[in-house]
Design a protein that fits this description.
O2 binds at residues 66, 273. The chain is of the alpha+beta class. It has helices spanning 52-56, 66-79, 85-99, 205-212, 218-234, 246-260, 313-319; strands at 10-21, 37-48, 107-115, 117-122, 125-133, 138-147, 153-168, 193-203, 264-272, 275-278, 293-296, 302-308. The protein is built from seven helices and twelve strands.
Amino acid sequence: MTISFAHHNHGKGKVRVVKVFREEADLKGKFGEINEDVRHYNVQTILYGPVEESYTKGNNQKVISTDTQKNTVYCVARDNKFKSSEHFAVLLSQHFLKQYPDSVVHEAHITIEEDIWARVEVGGHKHGHAFKKTGPCQKKVVATCSRNADGGTALTLKCGVQNFTLMKTTNSSWCDFLRDEYTTLPDARDRLLGSSMQVEWEYSKEFVKGGLTTEFDWEEMVQRIEDSLTFTFCGPPGTGVASSGVQQTLHQMCYNALNDIEGLDSMWISAPNLHNIPFDFSKLGRVGHGDVYVATTEPHGLIEVKLVKRCTPQMIKSAL
C-alpha cells in the first residue's frame, strides 16, 4: 500500500485591507472639495510549492509563513498603483512568483472579496470624501499565477458577484415538470421569481493581458456584465420577459452576457430560490388576493449552469 499527497497548500485568510485612493490629479473636485475614493478588500492568499517536508518531517525552511503572506498583502497595496480589485489580485499573485524561486512556490492563488462603498450624495452632489456601504452584493476576484515548464508564467483571472439578488413579481411560471408518486407541487402559471445568486465569469488570457497593459476600466466591465444579467432576468420595462423556469432564465442570462460582451471565456451562475409562498387565508375564513406571501429561504431549490465560449484574437482586440 502507498499513501501519498493528493494536494497541499498554505496561505492566509481574512486579510482585511482598506485602501484610500488619493491621486494628486483628483484631489480637487468640481466644487473645490477634496475628492478621494476608498476600497475595502478581504484578501486570501493560497500558495502551492514543493514543501512536502514541512508536513512529513517538520522542516519549515522553504515555507513562506502565513504571517509573511499577510504582511506582503499590505506592502503590495502600499507600493503599487491600481484602480481595481482585479489589478490588485494580479499584482499579488505575480509578486509571490517574482519574490520566491520555484523551489519555494510555483503557484499563487489570490482571492479578493470587495465590499462596495458608494459616494454619499448631499443636495444632489457627490461628497468628496464620505461614503456609505452598499450591499449585500459583493464583488469577488480570483487571480492565479503559475510557472510554466519553460520558466515563464501563466495568469488566469476570474471575477464575479456574490449575493446578486433579483426578483420579479410576475411573468414567471413552473409547469409541466416530471410527476410521480413523490410529487405534491402543483403547476404555477404565475409566481414570484427571486434568487440571491452567485455569479462568476472567467476572462480569456488574451483579454487579461491586454487589459493589464492599457488603461482598461475593469469596474466598468463588471457593471456592463451586471447590467446584461439584470436586463435578461427582468426584460424591458413595462412588458418584462416570460420565464418558464429558473433553468431557462439562467441559461439566457449566461448566453446573452457571453454573446454580447467580448473578452469572456465562461459564465457560471448558482441560483438558490428565494421562495415566496402565498399565505393560506382559507384557514382564517378569508380569501387571499394574491398579494401577501410568506418569504422563506429554506429549503430552497438550487439551480446552476455554466456556459463556455472561445474568442478569436480579433474579437479580443476589438474589446479593449
